Amino acid sequence: MGSGSFNFKFSQCFGDKADIVVTEADIITSVEYDASGDFLATGDKGGRVVLFERNRSSKHCEYKFLTEFQSHDAEFDYLKSLEIEEKINHIKWLRPIQRSHFLLSTNDKTIKLWKIYEKNIKLVNSNNLEERPGAGGAATQRRRNKVLLSMQNLKLPQMAQHDKIIAATPKRVYANAHTYHINSISPNSDQETFLSADDLRINLWNYDKPDQSFNVVDIKPANMEELTEVITSACFHPVDCNHFMHSSSKGTIKLCDMRQNALCDNRAMTFEEYTNPINHNFFTEITSSISDIKFSPNGRYIAARDYLTVKIWDINMNSKPVKTINIHDQLKDRLSDTYENDAIFDKFEVNFSGDSRSVMTGSYNNNFMIYPNVIAAGDGDHPVVETFDAASASSKQKQAKPAVQQDGDETTAEPEEIVLQADKTAFRNKQFGSIQQRSARTKEWGDDIDFKKSILHFSWHPRENSLAIAATNNLFIFSAL
């Protein structure tokens, strides 16, 4: 990708462009590019997965509809008298095999492995007993068939190509391993295993063994009244197959090594920023909960999104983040409003660019923000993951140096911000804003914030500056090509 251009412009929109009543089942809940960027998948509240393919005949970033299938259906847990939604929580692409593509999809309880492939449909277009027009009744027709069925006239039925379709087949179903709602799945770089995480446990699966999983993290206390935190997200390291991380509602991130212990949480390296208790308020515990974590593609950095900030961590320095980006400064004085309308519980995602240098995240009023080059060029070009344990973590913390060069207190400096809007104004090909318009955007928000128009789910193309953004029931494509 190189340094890249960040002149993002609207490219495409899939969905209803007019103002209509949005059906709940059509709201997009997951967006994911595959490793090549040639395919794009979305999941919605109705349990459907929709796939798009890059239009290779176009010079611009354009996608065309490929196929759609029902991934999950609503269920009812009779033991707990609990309804299980069909809503797709996560989609992850796996490595393709020959001309077939594979992806994992999950709702609250069940994970499925899907195979997507091109299927040829053939029909019989000629046989020995075809009807022939002519006078006479059934007796005449039978006499004709007897002539046709003589040894000299017998012939094999002929098959003709009828059509090509894209078929989706569930190859594996990974069920009954989670008591609580699954919040994330993550394929491993070894191409053999993947993680699934719920509120209190993280399980390790082998793709070929759907009836068996290994519990690698368990934070459930013996007495549930002593429960103080839950797991909010989990993610495998993109390069090192032994390492994974998970975040909590307390704002902590733990980096685990599966070679250290069967239950990895016991000897994890913890990333947590100290905050003075004097500055805590009623909402601190809610706003500090991490909603999403991502490794940079090179494996060197971690991006963590909570309600008010995005923090960038160097995995070799857990004393403090190398960069803190304030997202919702204008909401700090309105947290009581967001609490009353439940907006404070919105789970915003965060994403790295393919070159590991820039990040993006979402906001309200259908706004989303890109922060170009928050990681300095040349930093972390090669993944670095050290074997660690709890005893040596503190000494490493003292020795580690931040990879981002800091002038003064760089971790609190505001980086450049590009603000775009995924709504009808995008059809006019206008860029919504840039760093020069930050104050104007803050004023424009004022009291007029539409908390129902939130950009929670998106994906950054792995090889270029193109973005796929979910805005309620619409999928927007923005590109700098």
From TrEMBL:
<dbReference type="GO" id="GO:0061586">
    <property type="term" value="P:positive regulation of transcription by transcription factor localization"/>
</dbReference>
<dbReference type="InterPro" id="IPR018067">
    <property type="entry name" value="PP2A_PR55_CS"/>
</dbReference>
<dbReference type="GO" id="GO:1900182">
    <property type="term" value="P:positive regulation of protein localization to nucleus"/>
</dbReference>
<dbReference type="GO" id="GO:0031030">
    <property type="term" value="P:negative regulation of septation initiation signaling"/>
</dbReference>
<dbReference type="GO" id="GO:0000329">
    <property type="term" value="C:fungal-type vacuole membrane"/>
</dbReference>
<dbReference type="GO" id="GO:0090266">
    <property type="term" value="P:regulation of mitotic cell cycle spindle assembly checkpoint"/>
</dbReference>
<dbReference type="InterPro" id="IPR036322">
    <property type="entry name" value="WD40_repeat_dom_sf"/>
</dbReference>
<dbReference type="GO" id="GO:1905477">
    <property type="term" value="P:positive regulation of protein localization to membrane"/>
</dbReference>
<protein>
    <recommendedName>
        <fullName>Protein phosphatase PP2A regulatory subunit B</fullName>
    </recommendedName>
</protein>
<feature type="region of interest" description="Disordered">
    <location>
        <begin position="390"/>
        <end position="412"/>
    </location>
</feature>
<dbReference type="GO" id="GO:0016237">
    <property type="term" value="P:microautophagy"/>
</dbReference>
<dbReference type="GO" id="GO:0019888">
    <property type="term" value="F:protein phosphatase regulator activity"/>
</dbReference>
<dbReference type="GO" id="GO:0005634">
    <property type="term" value="C:nucleus"/>
</dbReference>
<comment type="similarity">
    <text>Belongs to the phosphatase 2A regulatory subunit B family.</text>
</comment>
<dbReference type="GO" id="GO:0010515">
    <property type="term" value="P:negative regulation of induction of conjugation with cellular fusion"/>
</dbReference>
<dbReference type="InterPro" id="IPR001680">
    <property type="entry name" value="WD40_rpt"/>
</dbReference>
<dbReference type="GO" id="GO:0005934">
    <property type="term" value="C:cellular bud tip"/>
</dbReference>
<dbReference type="GO" id="GO:0045143">
    <property type="term" value="P:homologous chromosome segregation"/>
</dbReference>
<dbReference type="GO" id="GO:0044732">
    <property type="term" value="C:mitotic spindle pole body"/>
</dbReference>
<dbReference type="GO" id="GO:0000705">
    <property type="term" value="P:achiasmate meiosis I"/>
</dbReference>
<feature type="compositionally biased region" description="Low complexity">
    <location>
        <begin position="390"/>
        <end position="406"/>
    </location>
</feature>
<dbReference type="InterPro" id="IPR015943">
    <property type="entry name" value="WD40/YVTN_repeat-like_dom_sf"/>
</dbReference>
<dbReference type="InterPro" id="IPR000009">
    <property type="entry name" value="PP2A_PR55"/>
</dbReference>
<dbReference type="GO" id="GO:0010971">
    <property type="term" value="P:positive regulation of G2/M transition of mitotic cell cycle"/>
</dbReference>
<dbReference type="GO" id="GO:0001100">
    <property type="term" value="P:negative regulation of exit from mitosis"/>
</dbReference>
<dbReference type="GO" id="GO:0043332">
    <property type="term" value="C:mating projection tip"/>
</dbReference>
<dbReference type="Pfam" id="PF00400">
    <property type="entry name" value="WD40"/>
</dbReference>
<keyword id="KW-0677">Repeat</keyword>
<dbReference type="GO" id="GO:0044818">
    <property type="term" value="P:mitotic G2/M transition checkpoint"/>
</dbReference>
<dbReference type="GO" id="GO:0005935">
    <property type="term" value="C:cellular bud neck"/>
</dbReference>
<dbReference type="GO" id="GO:0072686">
    <property type="term" value="C:mitotic spindle"/>
</dbReference>
<keyword id="KW-0853">WD repeat</keyword>
<dbReference type="GO" id="GO:2000786">
    <property type="term" value="P:positive regulation of autophagosome assembly"/>
</dbReference>
<dbReference type="GO" id="GO:0000159">
    <property type="term" value="C:protein phosphatase type 2A complex"/>
</dbReference>
<dbReference type="GO" id="GO:0071475">
    <property type="term" value="P:cellular hyperosmotic salinity response"/>
</dbReference>
